[in-house]
Amino acid sequence: MDVTATADTSAEKKAAPIELVGIRKQYPDGTVAVGDLSLKVRAGELVVLIGPSGCGKSTVLRMINRLIEPSAGRILLDGEDVTQVDPVRLRRRIGYVIQNVGLFPHQTILANVGTVPRLLGWPKARIRQRSEELLDLVGLDPAKFGKRYPQELSGGQRQRVGVARALAADPVVLLMDEPFSAVDPIVRGRLQEEFLRLQADVRKTIVLVTHDLDEAVRLGDRIAVLSQGGKLEQYDSPANLLGRPASPFVREFVGADRGIRRLAVTPVSREMLDPLTADSGDYPSAELGISLYDALASMLVTNSDHLRVVDGGMPVGLLTRHRLLSIDYPAE
Ligand SMILES: Nc1ncnc2c1ncn2[C@@H]1O[C@H](COP(=O)(O)OP(=O)(O)OP(=O)(O)O)[C@@H](O)[C@H]1O
Description:
Order of helices and strands: HEEEHEEHEHHHHHEHEHEEHHHEHEEH
Mean pLDDT: 87
Low-confidence stretches: 1-13
Keywords: ATP-binding, Nucleotide-binding, Transport
Number of helices: 15
Radius of gyration: 22 Å
InterPro entries: AAA+_ATPase, ABC_transporter-like_ATP-bd, ABC_transporter-like_CS, CBS_dom_sf, P-loop_NTPase
Domain ABC transporter: 18-254
Pfam families: ABC_tran
Family: Belongs to the ABC transporter superfamily.
Strand content: 15-25%
Helix content: 25-40%
Bound molecules: adenosine-5'-triphosphate
């Protein structure tokens, strides 16, 4: 993934904050999909919208790029009210990725990725260079995949092309509606991991809709839990959401598997460790800061009740299985 060699690299870091101020959407038949929602997303932040079916997630997303016009309220992109911006110009600054991608079947993968730059009238050579660079960035060899057609790719590969296409014109915001839900769980896990690496690289402002809580916990810097009518129940980090659900609704929504999920978002820290002992060297080792979930997995795989925890190669203490399973989480 070498993107450092092009002039666009600095521009790739660009991201803009989004602010929703009291937005409302009432459809012509009277349905109030979103009643009164306010939400701030920082530049470069990945925010996940989650909630039960019909709570208004997609409506919120589509108001941001004006595929749907809000009935009231304001949406600020980089401080500018999006309703004052020409929708076509707006959508060039906002990448949009949807389930099943919607690639053009009669165009090659390279042509698909170059769609927006072509609309923007970029010179041919630049479009090609940018499209190849983007395919590379999402882990597809342009020489191998560039000339293929969408039906000649797997579902996961098509999904990556969708992400590449959304990034092509270097948008300041990426909106993603259930981007990984059309593929099987194993491919989904891999795409999520790749996507996190990609985001670490490009640092776009991302609003992602999902109804998969594991996906939300895995990807989100913050998670917004919505209930019917787009009511914001809680807007928090994954760890706080699981550890301190703000309402009975959220508690029920995050559900019974909360304990396991909390292990995944809680790192091994020094306070959890017992002192080293003479036989510490016999135990499998693990780095300070890995998740409790990974630490437990490591104990199970090695059939050991102890891990020797190291920090930069230096042993700093022992983590016992008993201690791991009785960690005191912050009071709820
Ligand atoms: N064009 C429309 N006309 C009337 N009602 C609509 C329209 N589009 C959506 N709705 C309603 O608005 C509400 C919110 O829909 P939306 O698609 O935003 O929900 P969602 O949270 O994304 O749902 P899901 O998770 O099932 O995709 C639903 O009650 C839906 O039936």
